[in-house]
Amino acid sequence: MNEELLAEYIGSLQKRIDRIASLQVKLAEGNAKAEENVRLLAHSLHGSGTSFGFPEISEAGKALEQADAGMLAEPLEDLANVLRDVVAANAGLLKKQAETNARGDGAAAEGSRKDSSRESEETQLLKILVVDDDPDMS
């Protein structure tokens, strides 16, 4: 797995942790859209966790997806804890990536451009792949 892509994914988890905190408040307030948003977040994490080498994220996302309505608080908190653990365990990778990005020296920039163009070609191929992993869909 590309270290830069992995670091970007792990970095995005903090935004999701923040989103969970917001959703927890909205669920407690009885916001009608909160449950739908929780399910969407869970589905996205259920699908992405294993792809990036974090099956614990996928498992927590799946548990949240399958939780009964009105019983989302505990699995939502469990998911937040899993995300916090992954971010904490990979803090070194995030720091290393931030230092690489901040350094921006010529050699790193040239290598980055080459990697970027190669990744761009790969990404274009990936953008046409659509996977629906919902077993309930016929």
Can you give a write-up of this model?
It is a single chain. The longest helix is centred in the N-terminal third of the chain and has 27 residues. The protein is elongated and about 50 Å long. 77% of the residues lie in helices and 0% in strands. The protein has 138 residues and is an all-alpha fold.
Structural class by secondary-structure content: mainly alpha
Oligomer: single chain
In angstroms, what separates the terminal alpha carbons? 32 Å
Question: What is the arithmetic mean of pLDDT?
Answer: 81
Name the overall outline. Answer: elongated
Total strand segments: 0
Characterize the biggest β-sheet: none
Q: Which value, in Å, is the CA radius of gyration?
A: 18 Å
What is the total domain count?
Answer: 1
By DSSP (H or I, 4+ residues per run), the number of helices equals 6
User: How much β-strand is present in the residues?
Assistant: under 5%
Order of helices and strands: HHHHHH
Helicity level: over 70%
State the low-pLDDT regions, or none. none
